[in-house]
Structures are given as C-alpha cells and as structure tokens.
# Entry
Amino acid sequence: MTPDPQLRIYAHNDEQWEKYCAWHQFGSKRKAADNTEWSESAIQRAKSAIERNAARHGYAPEQGFSQDNVPSGFALDKVSMLTDLRSGEQVLRWDKMSREREAQEAFIREAVEAMCEDLPRMKPRTTKPKIDNDELMTVIPMGDPHFGMYAHASETGESFDLTIAKRDLCAAVDYLVGQSPPSKRCVLINLGDFFHCDNRKNTTNSGNVLDVDSRMSKVISVGVAALRQCIESALDRHETVEIINVIGNHDEVLSLALDAIFLNTYENEPRVVVHAQPTPRHYIQHGKVLIGATHGDRTKDRDLPGIMATEKPVQWGETTTRYFYRGHHHHDTLEMLNGCTVEQFSTLAPNDAWHHAGGYLTGRNMKLIVHHKEFGEVSRSVCSIDMLRSLAQ
# Structure
C-alpha cells in the first residue's frame, strides 16, 4: 500500500517519513518493525506525528478535510461542524483558511527587498587593513544566537533579553577578531536560529509557545544592528568579510530577510560579501579546504560527508580537508567521519524556561577558527560566556 504523497510535507524529517512509508509498505507497525531497524513504538510515533501535523493544518482526507476546494495561496486552517446528535449527520460546516507558508515566505521576502530599496547603503571604506597573507582564512561560527528570546533569572538562573543578546554577541566577535592573525579573508557563519521566532504569534512553526522579548519589529531591528556591528568589527582587521546566514528551524523566514537586508546595505561595499542562497546548506572553499554550514535540524551528522560530496563533487575532489559546521543542539561536539570533520557549536544564549526545566545544561561559548589553504585548521580561539563577563568588569 502506497502512502498519501501529500502527507510528505507534514513530516518533520526524512527519517520520520521513511518510518511512515514502512508502515504502509508492510501493512502494520509490527511487520514494519520486523523488516526494518526501527521499533514498533518508533514507527507508531512517526505515523501519529505526521497525521496529527497534517490534521492541524486542515488535511485529513479520511475525515473529509482536504485542500481540493481551497483557493490557491491559502491553506485549510480550522474546521468547525454542527452535527445533529440524533442522526449523527453533519448539519453545517465552517472552513477557516489562512495563507500557505510558501506564499507567506514569498510575500515577506518581496516586502523586505522592497523596504531595502530605501535603506542607506554603506559607503566603501576609504582605508582598509594592509594584509599580505592570503594563505589564511578566519572563520567565526555563531551558534544559535536566539535574538528575541526572553529568560528570567528566577525561572532559569540567568536573565536574557535583546539588550543582553546584542551585548554578548558583539563583545564576543570583537574579542575573537582581536585574537585573529592578519588574514585577508574572514567568514562570519550564522548557523541558524539567529532569531528566536519569526511570527507575531511568538510560536515555533509547529505551534509551541516561545518566551519572546518585546515586539517583532524591535527584535528584527536589534538583531540586524548587532550583526552589522559584527561585520564592522571584522572589517577593521580583515580585507574581506563574508557573511553566511543559515536557515534555522526558529527563523525560516527571517533568515532570508537577513540576506536581503545585508545585500542591500553593503551593495556599494566590495569588501563585504553576502552568501545569499535560500538553501539549507552553504559551502565555501579556501584552497584545499572545503567548509559546509547547516543548522542541523533536518540531517544526521553521519550523512553530512556524503551530502557534501554529492552536492559539491568538484570541490570535494579539489580539497583534502573538509569540515561541516552545524548548530541547533546548543552544545559542542566534534566527530571525524569519512573524509569530513563534523562539528557542532554551542551558543552564547542561556536556556529559556522550557529547556531549563528539561535539564539542558551545557557550556556556552563562541569560537574563532583559522584555516590554512593547504593544511586546514591550524589554530582556534575560544571566548566563553564567563570570559565575556570577566572582560566586561
């Protein structure tokens, strides 16, 4: 039996969809478990999660709910029915519709680009650092800054808001840039979840309520100002500064807006390069070094080397040291896999109330990594949150 292909978009990841397909292929969770590596409970959870997510978005064909009669650009959001209790027949039905997420993203992106037409462009700097060393490339990964998150010390042990987020990020980048050798090229990699959420409901895309500081317009304004300050700090020491904004699961829309904003802001500054691709993975090459960047919520670490080789076969063949940088889980890990080192970076942000209650207690820091075009990583500097607090005193 073949599963309904329209349900694919309601799966959270490829593995969840594969479990759902296994259920349909073998006819039951028990037979699916016997013929795959997954347990019955794992297959049941995947099936329930997909169907529940689909129903939440108004798609449940077995109940008579589908998108067949919904206008283009909209999705079935909620359904209310009036039923005759004696006969069990449906008397009335109300369908509530909302714009599809894809249409929303296209609309928001066009709006941001239009707004950027009136933004003041940065004038090219009249002076730049005199750097002859193009053998080295400095990389500063930013793990999940979560601008807009709110935490109160009485609940989480430490307070966090927009002011603290901007102060910590800018101070960390300023310190790390000061530790960098005189390399011509510097790459700032925002590994996703730069913003804590990207809707006015203050929820994740799946509907979980988030603790958010202030209004969305202020969150965007402060976040953009902070990232711009990081770019300016890097320009003081490096000849060229590149910025990569990875799409996170908390800011699928606003990550695209960051690209549009900085493409326009630095349109006249040749020393700033914005890697603006609406893709889940980005790649940069420096001689025999290839670096991939992704948020990490939709892929397994062990699969990233193969994904890199498939998406960038020419660059893979030209390089001898390869790295994949990712965020999402808020703690440090490093694993050397086939042909590629996969590293996960921690965040400077503390836990919100939900993560604190769950006991997710990890170290918080930001790193600067120096790559040689022949030999790969040759040095790194670490700036912990405790160091930032000490430097601020």
